[in-house]
């Protein structure tokens, strides 16, 4: 800030900030395993953005970030069939749910789960309807080289 003198007192001159100065383009972040640092090829651009709303705060409190696609070659996978009630919406539920547990291919640390979402979301380009819930504490941002 520049100071301008006027008589016995000085007046502060504040810099003007335009709307273009406030816009910061989103930066893509890639993630690696939080335990061993193995590159998981998870990108923030592949985040499942339809849950950014009323449910977003709940998922963050649970420590979960959702992705619409992952590089499955970077994970060890274990198929699981769970037999317990689950709810997609108020009137849509089921008893059996097939899901895939994802582990770091390098250190075998549990990273998250993948499952069929049922209703493909409009932001899923591939249309396979899969959703991946990844634990925040199992990730760390990759260092840029």
TrEMBL record:
InterPro entries: At4g08330-like. It comes from the Eukaryota. Pfam families: At4g08330 (PF24046). This is Uncharacterized protein. It comes from Zingiber officinale (Ginger).
